[in-house]
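Narrative of activities, Objective 1.

The group set out to show that a structural description can be obtained from nothing but a protein's sequence at a throughput compatible with the screening campaign. Below is one input-output pair from the validation batch, recorded exactly as produced.
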Amino acid sequence: MSLNPHPVLHAGSPAEAIAAAAEAPLTRGQAALEAERCLYCHEAPCEQACPTHIPVPQFIRRIGDGDLRGAAQAILAANPLGGMCARVCPTEELCEAVCVRNTQQGQPIAIGRLQRLAVDAAMTLPATIFFHRAPATGRTVAVVGAGPAGLACAHGLALKGHSVVLFDAHAKAGGLNEYGLASYKTADDFAQREIAWLLQTGGITVRTGWRLESAAQLAELRESFDAVFLGIGLGSTQALGVPGDTLDGVEDAVDFIARLRQAADLSTLKVGRQVVVIGGGMTAIDAAVQAKLLGAEQVTLAYRRGPEAMSASEVEQRWALTHGVVIRHWLAPQAMVGEGGRVTGITLAGQQLVDGRLVPTGALETLPADQVLKAIGQKLSAGWAADAGLALTGGRIVVDATGHTSLPGVWAGGDCVAGGRDLTVEAVEHGKQAALSIDACITQAACAA
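Output recorded for this entry:
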């Protein structure tokens, strides 16, 4: 069956369906009641579990006192992208997972929703109320990649008085916040509104449409700037490597989400009637739910292992089930079935664990599919990195605790570096720490050799 450019939804327009799927923000009254549940723990485990170490009890106490501006100040001092993180952070696996109220009442404080309320209120005020830029130092830094890591690094450096040029390959800044997250998580163009708000503090020039793709370009940046930060993400999706994976209708889930996020009219966005999503992470869930909201009749998410191995949280998995997505486990893609150059189905092979290894059971089944979305992980799209002298491991850039790479004067952070968890909030922390290290290096001659 061909892709449907004008999906018939069970209710409302595509935009209305997506908006209705978003979690409603707390009202001030609801927030005050929720804040009263907080025990304001000493050495709070929630604060320790946050990669950016937001002082959770402090900002919740301020919300309880009716001081949303003070709450936002505490949040933003630790995490300048606190608004986006409040929307997309897996709080159920981080701060809320260790909340003491889990033990006492079986229900953690709604930390993420409280954080969103405070930061959204702050964004109605000038950013300069919360951030104060130091006098200009005359130093310049190139930040490549305007995703969470790059934005956090650029902002931190600008506040120190340095001049930052923020490069990005896309037409808009934001990285995956703009191009890779489900619309229902970032409604009302929030990614761009947050960036515009942060840029009010000054010191950052954004240059879009510029891609780092050669060792010579990196060498030129190192020559032209006092320091360079790489927040380039991963860039490309892993290949399925099965017959038929180049058929029309087979595409990367990230590309599908990006197209949706940039569509001026969602009713013109093509979506299959029978969609199969391959993968078990947040991107797979986002793509599956988005396809269902856009009018797909049947959406099946196929994952090669069991539910406990999925990197998508239990909350995300339940979210997908609530929206009518069918999740099938222990199935791996074997081949695409096509007709006339277009995908018409996908053959899946049953899997099982034998001595800790995943092996086929011998069982095969073919599902009808006029659209297949691949969400099986990404890889660093930077063949130039090794030529430039950057140390790599597992296809990602090696950095120390401050984000310094093997090249003098070059730092990196976010998804492109080895050892991370590919979380927005973790990328923000990478950018923060790199900004501190870069500042110490270029102003205090504290650079590592």
